[in-house]
Amino acid sequence: MSAPAAVRDPARLARRGLVVLTIINLLNYLDRYVPAALSESLRSSTLRISDTQFGLLTSGFIVVYMFAAPVFGAFGDSRSRPRLIALGVFIWSVATALGGLAWSFASLLVARAAVGIGEAAYGTIAPGLISDYFPRSHRGRGFSVFFAAIPIGSALSYVVSGQIDVHFGWRAAFFAAGIPGMLMAALALRLYDPPRGVHDPKPLADAIGSAARASVGAAYGVLRRNRPYLLTVLGYAAYTFALGGMAAFMPKFLMRVRGIPEGAATTWFGLILVGTGFVGTFVGGWVGDYLLRVTKQSYLWVSGLATLVAAPLTLVALSSPEPSAYWGGIIGAELLLFVSTGPINSVIVNVVAPEMRATAVAVSIFTIHVLGDVPSPALLGFLSDRTSLAQAVLIIPVAVLVSGLIWTYGAWRGGRQ
User: Fold this and answer.
1) CA–CA gap between residue 284 and residue 345 (Å, rounded)
2) Residue-wise pLDDT tens digits, 298-311
3) Nearest partner of 405 among 227, 237, 290, judged by Cα
4) For the chain, which domains are there?
């Protein structure tokens, strides 16, 4: 009898697994940002979605997502990861398609909230699976491939959903986004599931993970005492506040404040996301890995410094009326913000034991959303309805600055220990 495939060639199966997970991650973000691409159509449709309600659509999805994440995190540390991922992909894909059948704000809110259940299963478990596919020295690059799907999927959502909306209506955009994920759920069942911590030194698990193995509550206690983890997640929360606001309201901003037509606004913003996200994510992952030979805090230094430089560019993008200035600001800010994606997620899985990575990612997801993109879209919508969208978006550069300061401090503090 021949040896199992995982024994014959685990490296090949790991690469194949990364490809499948990356494609699913692309669909993850394509589905997530469909409402953002359809924002003005939802406002003028029979649903009459106000800016405040639009912000609540995004926040409602995130609330369910962050509360479901710890549940799937606990499962992900002890049960079959491919099966849990496949279940999550199927749930969110069906829920996305059901958004096209909405007859009121409440029904659309329920559909979008259900998307959060499925994405919670995937978002908590996939990073831990990838960390077991690759050794620590190559995780930054592995995550850079995986997270490059974020800008590409987001961009496809803006471009494809925007064009489908223009030609076929907003309901068709939800249907088109949901169907591919149902097919990818079948591929997820065949993913390679290596032993947890297979590429990590045993002392790491013994030193950090002994309490975590006792119970979920003990794992939370370990995370609360892990200062590098806490600083990383707090900076990530401010970063997510900024990105959540930008993702939800940037198409509205370009259409309403800058006067750009819907098709052009969603297409150009989508193309910018593809270009800056692809380049920024790969650069961040490779530079973070390369600088590990110089400092163990390389991932935090790369994320912190890139985000600090992005803060003034974000302000220019949202405040200057000159097309050359605001388009240049958008490109520069997005490029630098995406630099942080691979390194910061590498930090989260590297500073905890292999046996509790899904739990650590789940707690991170809960925290960054409850402090980040749960309040930011709703707050921006509230401020926009009561002042103007041009004034409301100016809170975004402040959040970018805060995230950069926290990560830079974390890198400096870690280097002194």
Assistant:
1) 11
2) 999 999 999 999 99
3) 237
4) 12-192+226-410 (1.20.1250.20)
